[in-house]
Amino acid sequence: MRHIISLLMENEAGALSRVAGLFSSRGYNIESLTVAATEDSTLSRMTLVTAGSDDVIEQITKQLNKLIDVVKVVDLSEGDHIERELMLIKVRALGKDREEIKRLADIFRGRIIDVTDKSYTIELTGTGSKLDAFLDTIERSAILETVRTGASGIGRGERILKV
Amino acid sequence: MSTELTGAEITVRCLQKEGVDHIFGYPGGAVLFIYDELFKQDKVKHVLVRHEQAAVHAADGYARSSNKIGVALVTSGPGVTNAVTGIATAYMDSIPLVIISGQVPTHAIGLDAFQEVDTVGITRPCVKHNFLVKDINELATTIKKAFFIASTGRPGPVLVDIPKDVSQQKAVFVYPESVAMRSYNPVTRGHAGQIRKAVQLILEAKRPMIYAGGGIILSDAAAQLTELVRMLGFPCTNTLMGLGGFPATDRQCVGMLGMHGTYEANMAMQHCDVLVAIGARFDDRVIGNPKHFFNEDRKIIHIDIDPSSISKRVKVDVPIVGSVSDVLVELIKMLKVRKEKPDQTALDAWWTQIDLWRARDCLKYDRSSSIIKPQLVIEKLYDVTKGDAFVTSDVGQHQMWAAQFYKFDLPRRWINSGGLGTMGFGLPAAMGVQFANPGNMVACVTGEASIQMCIQELSTCKQYNLPLKVINLNNRYMGMVRQWQEFFHGNRYAESYMDALPDFVKLAESYGHVGMKIEQPGDVESALTEAFKLKNRLVFMDFITDQTENVFPMVPGGKGLSEMILV
Ligand SMILES: Cc1ncc(C[n+]2csc(CCOP(=O)(O)OP(=O)(O)O)c2C)c(N)n1
């Protein structure tokens, strides 16, 4: 099953490699990983998307907790949470397609952030499946480039991950 | 204004503050300032090994036999890469070490400088934690943290990488009394509710079994374990890492379990209805195939300091996370309060069954053989030392025979590389043991293949007058490899024959030690007696043993515990 795991860790050199190293050495899969400093610059917040049986997920959270630099770990998928991912997509936009693409972007609440006479660059946020859905609406050959951040997640309401 | 010290002075002062009396190391460019400071003082004694792998093994043997933290010091680049085997060995067996390594100067890091390796990167998967100290002002705190992390929670090796310029720069030295880390707060006390559940299960047991591992040794809980086992009257098995945790000569001890465990221990593990696993991790060489081990009706209590060891290979019913010694104290207290006893009739019947298994005499061997049987050597070693020696071993058949035939009644007496299985461990580990226990008998049981992996340490032994007794079970084969080839590869002995062996007697003598070659079973005991009488000399005893002998019982890889091959 897919799980989205959030963690707070000391913002130290090499901290990211400890997490990445753990996943590769123990053979866990990583679908995506995002990381950046928090409002407290001594802490980094990481969101990891992984998949595995309950046993594997249990091991993953235990092993993450065991890393000396890791301060807190939560499996967001255990409760209500919100996930968002950012995608930038550059599409070929010529002639009558320009109007159509703009209309599609609007429907998905995307924003066109760069324009040339041949292309649009669209910014889109949402869950991974919304981004997938948008990609499906655009003809493959028109897609020039995409870049996605991977999911970031946060608990709903009073669910707070903080030191 | 307090005076400033160099990074090298700070490093040495930290070691002094931690009460380190011996450090094992090898110099080189990146650690020269540190060596210079070691030279100027005499509180921390430096032991010069002949290879960095041995420095770490020696620190490791020192730690295992003393419950102190072992410390090693190596230079950058090849010094570190040589040390990696030692570090990984300690990591797999959860041994508290602090390894200090030199690094190229901070401004040269990343430029492929002479003797530069990414030490933090290379060692990351085999340390509990590691640090690269880039700022002299963080040096003392970092070393304090290293000692704290190494010895608390589930222990393990911690490495501190110190660039050469940091060892030269100056800062005010303040050694923190303690460290608090928001990201690292190991638990010690077990959850009372869980312990209560364990007590209930224990009292309801009809076919109980206590399975105790290296955690007993690491948390110094042998006394508590012994009290628990005796008050309950249950059978107890020790793992390879746990030997000595419960006295081997006690009737309630059913011997070691696992791949080369006794018939009675493995059968009791398989057929018990309540299993109390303490400081053990159900590893593949212990329970064999987990699918075969699984039994719906067996309830498992698992006490361990490391939550990630729980339900990793085997699902358990009552997990208790905490320091083994603390949890055992609580458990014993609660049992005493309850005053009830488990069903004695059922327990008697269970013992009758166990004694039947025991009567199978699974460790029997040909005592009338005209060629020296390796088992005989270990039995005689036990007799001659009256069971009071520290015994280190290398890896192979000799290791298993030592574990099976030397009856360890005390913890920290059996020193071996259980997790990583590192050939070359025995001799340098024995050096560390001797430094930690001067005046005690220390024997290194080895094979002619293993001993050659760190044989250069005979030179270190000479330099420091370490009166070790090396028991070389010389079967002219990588015996354990040969055994697997005999059983599983159609007797094709691919590269497992040890050709062109040195004359070990002459070799020992050339290092300034005493050498003995023993070829007759009748000479085994007298030779050992003579060797141990030489209290101030290292004696290298080359026992020419039966080439065809195998270790039994044996649970073949992938098989279940009750599917043993027996003699
Ligand atoms: C460094 C290392 N390399 C290889 C092995 C694989 N191995 C395990 S036992 C063994 C043979 C050991 O032979 P010896 O030391 O003569 O002991 P014996 O089994 O004959 O008692 C080998 C090669 C190992 N454990 N460690």
Question: What would you note in describing this structure?
Answer:
- The complex is a heterodimer of chains A (163) and B (567).
- Chain A has helices at 15-25, 54-66, 97-107, 128-137, and strands spanning 2-10, 32-37, 43-51, 70-75, 81-92, 111-115, 119-126, 143-148, 152-155.
- With 163 residues, chain A is an alpha+beta fold.
- The radius of gyration of chain A is 19 Å and the shape is elongated.
- Chain A starts with a strand and ends in an 8-residue tail after the last strand.
- Chain B has 567 residues and is an alpha/beta fold.
- In chain B, 37% of the residues lie in helices and 16% in strands.
- In chain B, the strands form four sheets. Chain B has a six-stranded parallel beta sheet, sandwiched between helices.
- In chain B, strand 17 (442-447), helix 19 (457-463) and strand 18 (469-474) form a beta-alpha-beta unit.
- In chain B, helix 1 packs parallel to helix 6 and helix 11 runs antiparallel to helix 15.
- The termini of chain B are far apart.
- The relative contact order of chain B is 0.11.
- Thiamine diphosphate binds next to helix 17 and helix 20 of chain B.
- Thiamine diphosphate binds at residues 394-398, 421-424, 447-450, 473, 475, 477-481 of chain B.
SSE blueprint and pairings:
The complex is a heterodimer of chains A (163) and B (567).
Chain A: E1 2-10, H1 15-25, E2 32-37, E3 43-51, H2 54-66, E4 70-75, E5 81-92, H3 97-107, E6 111-115, E7 119-126, H4 128-137, E8 143-148, E9 152-155
Antiparallel strand pairs in A: 1-3, 1-4, 2-3, 5-7, 5-8, 5-9, 6-7
Chain B: E1 4-6, H1 7-17, E2 22-25, H2 32-39, E3 45-48, H3 52-64, E4 70-74, H4 78-92, E5 97-103, H5 119-123, E6 129-132, H6 139-151, E7 157-163, H7 164-168, E8 170-172, H8 192-204, E9 208-212, H9 214-218, H10 222-232, E10 236-238, E11 253-256, H11 263-271, E12 274-278, H12 284-287, H13 290-293, E13 299-304, E14 318-321, H14 324-338, H15 344-358, H16 374-384, E15 390-393, H17 397-405, E16 414-415, H18 426-436, E17 442-447, H19 457-463, E18 469-474, H20 479-488, H21 504-510, E19 514-518, H22 524-533, E20 539-544
Parallel strand pairs in B: 2-3, 2-4, 4-5, 5-7, 6-7, 9-10, 9-12, 10-11, 12-13, 13-14, 15-16, 15-17, 17-18, 18-20, 19-20
Antiparallel strand pairs in B: 1-8
The complex binds thiamine diphosphate.
